[in-house]
Specification:
The two termini are 25 Å apart. The chain has helices at residues 14-20, 22-38, 52-58, 64-76, 101-109, 115-118, 125-151, 160-171, 176-190, 202-205, 208-226; strands spanning 40-42, 45-50, 80-83, 95-99. The chain has eleven helices and four strands. This is Phage conserved hypothetical protein C-terminal domain-containing protein.
């Protein structure tokens, strides 16, 4: 039985994978490759600019939600630093990434192998999450209020069903701005359509399978609108994950 393939192989640091996880180490390796081949120097560091959609094309073994979770975890661990301050337009959904190599050296040289010991600050994450519940409640209320304003509806921002739907979306790594973007997109598409206007409701917009599709449509529209203002950067290696 043939166990190995002749095509491209995934390469990662075993020492790093043992300590932070295989998928996390693989993402770091992909970012490192991009920094080496397409990195841009800004403020004394080498950065690589990419969207979540772009990462998903480069690493097809993961969907966009998985990539968001990986990025958020590596950001919490302070292994990667990300920023959007270099974007030229507010509508630009891309982020700039760099690696904290000193942090990686500390991790690899450590004799500790358990993540909870390497990152003790994460032990208090449940407590932090408890404190942030009220913050998320405010975010959810703002999202429903935004929907009511844009769609001229009157949904209850204290409804358990509405809260559960939006809370699940935020937990997946999507942002309040993503929710606003989906609302704007679907209001634009459906507000004047008598058949579709009734679907401008939380249970339709924020159902996980629907939300990702609506967000992709909205981001595609934004990218199309930005083509007249920002030059397209061709990357012939796009889609490869080493």
């Amino acid at each position: 039985m043939k166990l190995l393939v002749d095509g491209r192989q995934l390469v990662l640091s075993q020492d790093l994978a043992i300590r932070i996880g295989v998928e996390e180490a693989l993402f770091i390796q992909q970012l490192y490759y991009r920094l080496e081949t397409r990195g841009v120097e800004k403020e004394g560091h080498i950065w690589y600019r990419q969207t979540y959609q772009g990462w998903a094309k480069q690493c097809p073994q993961w969907n966009m939600r998985k990539i968001k979770r990986l990025v958020m975890k590596l950001e919490r661990y302070q292994i990667i630093i990300s920023s959007n301050k270099f974007n030229r337009f507010k509508t630009d959904r891309s982020k700039w990434y760099r690696i904290d190599y000193e942090k990686i050296d500390q991790i690899v040289q450590s004799e500790v192998y358990k993540q909870e010991e390497l990152f003790p600050e994460q032990e208090n994450l449940s407590e932090k999450n408890t404190k942030s519940n009220s913050y998320h409640s405010n975010e959810i209320a703002n999202i429903i209020d935004y929907l009511n304003e844009k769609a001229k509806k009157n949904f209850n921002n204290h409804s358990k069903t509405n809260i559960r739907l939006i809370k699940a979306i935020l937990k997946e790594g999507y942002t309040v701005e993503d929710c606003y973007l989906v609302i704007d997109e679907q209001v634009r598409n459906w507000t004047n359509d008598p058949q579709m206007n009734k679907y401008l409701r939380p249970i339709t917009l924020f159902r996980p399978g629907n939300f990702e599709s609506y967000l992709n449509d909205a981001l595609t529209r934004q990218q199309d609108n930005n083509l007249d203002f920002e030059p397209v950067i061709l990357d012939f290696d796009e889609g490869e994950c080493y």
